[in-house]
Write a structure and sequence with these properties.
Layout (H helix, E strand, L loop, with lengths): L10 H7 L12 H14 L21 E4 L2 E6 L21 E3 L21 E3 L6 E3 L13 E3 L4 E4 L13 E3 L4 E2 L15 E3 L9 E2 L12 E3 L5 E3 L13 E3 L4 E4 L13 E3 L4 E4 L12 E3 L4 E4 L13 E3 L4 E4 L13 E3 L4 E4 L13 E3 L4 E4 L13 E3 L4 E4 L13 E3 L4 E5 L2 H4 L6 E3 L4 E4 L11 E3 L4 E5 L12 E3 L4 E5 L12 E3 L4 E5 L12 E3 L4 E4 L13 E3 L4 E5 L11 E3 L4 E5 L18 E4 L7 E2 L12 H39 L2 E4 L7 H6 L6 E4 L3 E7 L6 E7 L7 H14 L10 E6 L4 E6 L6 H5 L9 H7 L12 H10 L18 H14 L10 H9 L20 H4 L24
Parallel strand pairs: 2-3, 3-4, 4-6, 5-7, 6-8, 7-9, 8-10, 10-12, 11-13, 12-14, 13-15, 14-16, 15-17, 16-18, 17-19, 18-20, 19-21, 20-22, 21-23, 22-24, 23-25, 24-26, 25-27, 26-28, 27-29, 28-30, 29-31, 30-32, 31-33, 32-34, 33-35, 34-36, 35-37, 36-38, 37-39, 38-40, 39-41, 40-42, 41-43, 43-44, ...
Antiparallel strand pairs: 1-2, 46-50, 47-48, 48-49, 49-51, 50-51
Helix pairs in contact: 8-10
Length: 917
């Protein structure tokens, strides 16, 4: 099972020890204690981490040992890579009160030998390979037990009712297992319980939250996210008078929020996102310590309570993807701690709080897809912390606030689909960290800027009233990836400098008044994938050089005045969309386009013709030769003779080919070697005959996957064929060998079986059991994430769901960055040396923006490639500095606190933000 970081830092253990009396009941002689520990070390295979355990020093001096009055009371062996079982002799340490065995590889069932550790108060078995059910008599553990953590193992079945018969229990952690039964209502009997953690158990039988949980008067922390909860939140949660932290997110809860929930005096954090809760937010709100509220992605309705304006500690308010209506209370704009305000995708109306940003360190302001009117608040960036303004798809009016002109922290401004007007202040285009400016579908006026910010990669200004010529200095926009300026009033010639943008992938200038010829030279469009210049007044021939663009997929030059023949070189393009209609083109359509796949690509060009029948395109004329010098009888005889000859030739060919195939099949079978790992009832011939395109079910970078029937009962296997180009290259050979070595020896119920491998001189096949509509990911990864980013995993040395008890890797990385921790602390220990540290930091930051909150906020793979290319100095450049100041996309540089409020796992959903990178 993937390992997660410990939910508490090491100092917590020291604190816990202070809770236990250090009364030594009985202790064996010092030499006997040493013998016990050395025997334990030997039974564990003498791990090198325990090298200090020797006869040359007393046990109380060993770093893993805690002693009280000369007796061993604590044993901390976390992360020691131990793979052998726990020996029974560990309970010969009669005074043992603390046992931490977390982050190892202990196998087998729950260690019932620990029932004999009668004074145990702290037990941590988390992050190991334990399997099977927790025993029904688990209450035989020490009656003094206060802390038990069995998280991140492979325990299954039910959580037994006996867990509720450990009277002194304060901390109960059952997260991230394979429990496929139920959890007991008897947990409500743990009157001393302070911390209950059961998240990431998606195999739980769907169950309601027991009302008995409302009796836990001392409970401060309740975390049951992604655990198949159904029904309503119990009304008697009003009894949780000590509750500070509540996370029931990513379940299937429904109904209203209990009225008393927001009246709990100690409540600080409420995460209820991604459920089916409904109704309004109950008032009055008396939980004045609330700092984080996330009710996003539910079915809530009604208005946003005025009482939210009383929450002076509120930092995060997420209400997006609901059905809230009415106005946002102006008092929310006065909150002094508010940093993240996200209410997009609701039905809110009225004006936005005018003082928003004036009184707090506002970082994220996301109000898109509502019915807001009036102007944007003037002081959104007053504290110079704002990273994004996302207000598209509203009815907002007025001009862009002047406060944004000097907002050096802002990464994205998204105001499209509103009623804004006036000119864009020149300073907006050149903001130092601006990554994307999206202001389409408004009434903005003015000319295009001569200069853009050093890292602006997306400029979208379509459907406005911009006019004038495209500036000649456009060649300096070298960082631009997407430029959309459709449906404006741009005029003049198409500048050749516009072809000098090496990172440009999308260029839309359709619906303007551009004139003159298209440049015959393209300087640097090596990444261009879409070119739309339709509905202009461009003339002259279509340049041959367009046919050399290696990545071009979309070409639309329709409704212009292009003339002359279409160059055959354009047929080299791998186009998915081509439109040359409504021009003045002539001659024959190039052979590559002369087919029905392009039946609408050449309309309204009267002088064009085709050699195949294409609707509304003239057929090219040709002279026909007469053949009337042969009589009808002779022609009939020739025809009959030809038919007979064809028949006999086909029959003879059939027998020859059939005989050849039989012989070839026997030779081919002899060339294949079969190596089995399991018992099966098919032959290699069954497999080879089934490798057809009809059986293809998937393909990837290194091979294809086939579903092959192996007998008349329609039993199937899955066959992976490694890509071949003649001989296997070294990389694929290693990949094949690794997969065979690993899967061929594994016997595990959660891992698909490798039945055999079949190989020849130039092909490799792996044959697996076939699982209909299943996924290894479903069984091996229980954490719910909607994005995975190799850059995060590369620099940290962790897996995608390897964050901590509260977070996945993505959120753990955001929290590291948001808390201001040095990035070097997050890097894999093998790459922490100073050499190229800044480039490593940049890859880490790139991973952050790739896990931004909304899909529209993340860069495309093309944009990621561009960012990676400029992490190091450009070829021929004298610039040496490639660190935070110059290298990565600017969204990375100030992500320090953008998600600082998300300090636990599963906080950020795919929809949690609108940023577009």
């Amino acid at each position: 099972m993937p390992k997660l970081p410990s939910p508490f830092p090491p100092p917590f253990l020291c604190f816990f020890l202070t809770l236990t009396p250090f009364l030594v009941i009985s202790q064996p002689p010092a030499d006997q204690t040493q013998t016990i520990l050395l025997n334990i070390k030997q039974q564990w295979g003498n791990p090198p981490q325990l090298s200090s355990w020797s006869t040359s020093s007393p046990p109380c001096s060993w770093p893993e040992i805690t002693c009280t009055g000369g007796a061993v009371t604590g044993l901390n062996l976390t992360n020691y890579n131990i793979i052998e079982p726990i020996p029974p002799s560990i309970c010969d340490l009669k005074n043992l009160t603390l046992l931490d065995l977390s982050f190892n590889y202990f196998p087998g069932n729950f260690p019932t030998i620990l029932y004999n550790c009668s004074n145990l108060r702290y037990l941590d078995l988390s992050q190991n390979y334990f399997v099977g059910p927790i025993p029904s008599d688990v209450d035989r553990l020490s009656s003094s037990l206060r802390y038990i953590d069995v998280g991140a193992n492979n325990f299954s079945g039910d959580i037994p009712p006996a867990i509720g018969r450990l009277p002194e229990l304060r901390f109960l952690k059952l997260y991230s297992n394979q429990f496929n039964g139920s959890f007991p209502v008897e947990i409500g009997n743990l009157s001393n319980l302070e911390y209950l953690s059961m998240p990431y158990n998606p195999l739980f039988t769907p169950a309601k939250i027991p009302p008995e949980f409302g009796k836990l008067k001392k409970l401060t922390y309740l975390w049951i996210t992604f655990a198949n909860l159904i029904g309503e939140i119990p009304a008697n949660f009003a009894g949780l008078s000590s509750l500070e932290y509540l996370d029931l997110s990513y379940n299937d809860l429904e109904g209203p929020i209990p009225k008393a929930l927001f009246q709990l005096k100690n409540l600080s954090v409420v995460y209820l996102q991604n459920n089916r809760l409904s109704g309004g937010i109950p008032t009055p709100i008396e939980s004045l310590n609330l700092s984080q509220i996330d009710l996003s992605t539910n079915n809530f309705s009604g208005s946003i309570p005025e009482d939210f304006g009383k929450l002076e500690q509120l930092e995060l308010l997420n209400l997006f993807f609901n059905q809230f209506s009415g106005e946002v209370p102006a008092s929310i704009g006065l909150l002094p701690a508010l940093t993240n305000f996200r209410v997009f995708s609701n039905q809110l109306n009225g004006t936005l709080p005018p003082e928003m940003g004036l009184h707090s360190n506002l970082e994220a302001f996301e109000v898109s897809d509502n019915l807001f009117t009036g102007a944007l608040p003037e002081n959104l960036c007053f504290r110079k912390r704002l990273t994004g303004v996302v207000a598209f798809s509203n009815n907002l009016t007025g001009e862009v606030p002047q406060s944004l002109v000097n907002c050096v922290t802002v990464r994205t401004i998204q105001l499209y689909d509103n009623n804004f007007s006036g000119e864009i202040p020149a300073g907006i285009y050149t903001l130092f960290n601006m990554l994307s400016l999206m202001i389409s579908k408004n009434s903005f006026t003015g000319n295009l800027p001569s200069e853009l910010g050093w890292n602006l990669s997306r400029l979208e200004i379509s459907d406005n009233k911009f006019s004038g010529q495209i500036p000649s200095a456009v060649s300096s926009w070298v960082r631009l990836v997407v430029f959309k300026a459709s449906n404006n009033q741009l005029s003049g010639e198409f500048p050749v400098g516009l072809t000098n943008l090496p990172q440009l992938t999308t260029l839309n200038l359709d619906g303007n008044s551009l004139t003159g010829n298209f440049p015959t030279t393209i300087l640097s469009w090596k990444n261009l994938t879409a070119l739309n210049l339709s509905r202009n007044q461009l003339s002259g021939p279509i340049p041959v050089v367009i046919g050399t663009l290696p990545d071009l997929l979309i070409l639309d030059l329709s409704e212009n005045k292009f003339s002359g023949q279409i160059a055959a070189e354009l047929g080299q393009l791998r186009l998915t969309t081509l439109n040359l209609s409504s021009n003045q083109l002539s001659g024959q359509i190039p052979r590559a386009f002369d087919n029905l796949a392009y039946d609408t690509s050449f309309l309204n060009n009267p002088n064009l013709c085709s050699t195949t029948p294409i609707p509304n395109v003239r057929f090219c004329s040709s002279k026909t030769r007469k053949s009337d010098y042969l009589s009808p009888k002779i022609l009939a005889l020739i025809l009959v003779s030809a038919v007979l000859l064809f028949f006999f030739t086909a029959l003879l060919t059939f027998f020859i080919v059939r005989d050849y195939r039989r012989k070839k099949h026997k030779r081919n079978l002899a060339a294949w070697k079969l190596t089995s790992f399991q018992r099966f009832n098919f032959t290699k011939a069954n497999i080879l005959v089934g490798l057809t395109e009809n059986n293809l079910i998937g393909s990837g970078g290194s091979g294809k996957i086939y579903r092959v029937a192996v007998n008349n009962s329609r039993d199937y296997v899955a066959v992976k064929k490694i890509w071949t180009k003649g001989k296997l290259d070294n990389k694929l050979e290693k990949e094949f060998s690794a997969e065979v070595d690993i899967l061929g020896t594994i016997r595990h119920s959660n891992i698909v079986k490798l039945l055999c491998c079949i190989s020849s001189e130039d092909s490799k096949l792996l044959v697996y059991e076939y699982m209909e509509n299943q996924s290894l990911d479903k069984w091996l990864h229980v954490k719910k994430r909607r994005e995975t980013d190799p850059a995060r995993q590369l620099v940290t040395g962790r897996e995608a769901n390897d964050g901590d008890e509260h977070t996945s890797l993505a959120e753990w990385a955001w929290r590291q960055h948001g808390e201001g921790n040095p990035i070097i602390d997050a890097l894999d220990e093998y790459i922490r040396e100073p050499l190229n540290l800044e480039e490593k930091s940049s890859v880490f930051k790139l991973g952050l923006i790739c896990t931004s909150t909304l899909p529209s906020s993340r860069p495309s793979m093309k944009e990621v490639l561009q960012m990676l290319r400029r992490i190091g100095p450009m070829e021929g450049s004298e610039v040496k500095k490639v660190g935070t100041e110059y290298d990565a996309a600017p969204l990375l540089a100030s992500a320090n606190k953008y998600l600082s409020s998300y300090t636990r796992s599963k906080k950020v959903a795919d929809e949690d933000g609108d940023y577009v990178v």
